[in-house]
Amino acid sequence: MVKRSFALLSALTAFLGAGSARAQLADSLASVSYERYPSVSTPGSAPGDVGLQVFRFRAAYPIFLSKQTILIPGLAYELIDIQQHGGSGADIGLLHAPTASLTLVQKITDRISVIGSVGAGFASDFQDRISVDDLQVNLTAIALYKFSDTFSLGAGVSYTRQTGTLTPLPAIALNWQPTESFRVRGFVPALVNIEYRVTPWLTPGIRGTFEGNRYHISEKSTGLENLQLAYSVITVGPKVTFRLADLLHLDVYAAGAFNRRFETYVDGNSTGSAYLAPVVFFGARLWVGPSGWHNDSATQPPASETPATQPPAAQPPTSLAPVAQSKQSAP
Question: For the chain, what is the radius of gyration of the CA atoms?
């Protein structure tokens, strides 16, 4: 039962990412990650620089409602530490994004499954009393088709604030493993992984993400009422995954961060935007879940039964082969 839950969760929790709407997806029962962005000069004429640290945590677990239906509650938390030095801008400090999500997975046929997910939480510095400006809601719907044991494809829509405004974004889920050592998994535009397995314990690859969210900034920090700050970034770079045990993995990665856009809103209306210079940053992620490679141990599901992603939470998705198999495996 525990092994089956790990396998199914890895394939079905595509949309249980952090409340940052950046990647509503996950490939694990639990994960914790850390990223550090070096300081760069702040936009404008005032001298100063700004750096970022990002901490994320996710957890989720599947509940079998029937042989065809699985419900997956999840929790996520993201912390962004904005480190400012010099300059005349307000000291924003810590931004928080706790989120709870609920995903329903429904098997239609042996090849077709559909997923619906809703996430709700807060995105704020939490220096003022909680208001409607702190709230965030993310919605995702997607249909997936299993063409073969090595190829699954899905399409749908995500309604998020990933770009700063609450808007629908197209979503494509891909899981393709043409050989025992090569695969492409992703939930476009949130995240794409291209991986080549060198040994059972070492998998290098290329990782790309599109991340973003919109946070309420308190009047105490800035002197302005109803101020919100949106941040989005595109990252691309190499990564290495170390398999520490059957269900325990460590990702280490470096990436270039591009299109680092900040935009401010007052009373819901945009008041201007600015860009930070591109940088190379470093990150690490420890996660619990099956790797999904064909030739792993019996504790692992086949590749077609693993996610097409690494979520967004309100993430990060997914091959849904396990749904098609759940009739045989469910109690």
Answer: 20
Q: Residue 143: how many CA atoms within 13 Å on its side-chain side?
A: 5
**And the tokens for 257?**
């961060």
Return the sign of the alpha-carbon dihedral for residues 22, 27, 33, 39.
negative
Give the pair of three-digit tokens for residue 176: 């393709």
Per residue in 95-117, pLDDT tens? 999 999 999 999 999 899 999 99
Percentage above 70 pLDDT, the chain:
76
Tokens 């990650």 sit on residue: 33
Nearest CA to 208 out of 249, 266, 255 is that of 255
Query: What's the pTM value of the predicted model, to 2 decimals?
Result: 0.79
Tokens coding 49: 């620089």
| CA 240-244-245 angle, 5° bins | 135
DSSP string for residues in 87-115: SSS---EEEEEEEEEEEEEEE-SSSEEEE
Domain tally, the chain: 1
Neighbours of 226 (CB within 10 A): 15
d(CA 93, CA 86): 14
Contacts of 242 (CB under 8 A, 6+ apart): 201, 202, 249, 250, 251, 252
CA 99 to chain CA mean position, Å: 12
Average pLDDT in the 166-177 region? Answer: 86
Owning domain of residue 19 = 2-329
Q: Which of 116, 133, 136, 128 is nearest to 76 (CA)?
A: 136
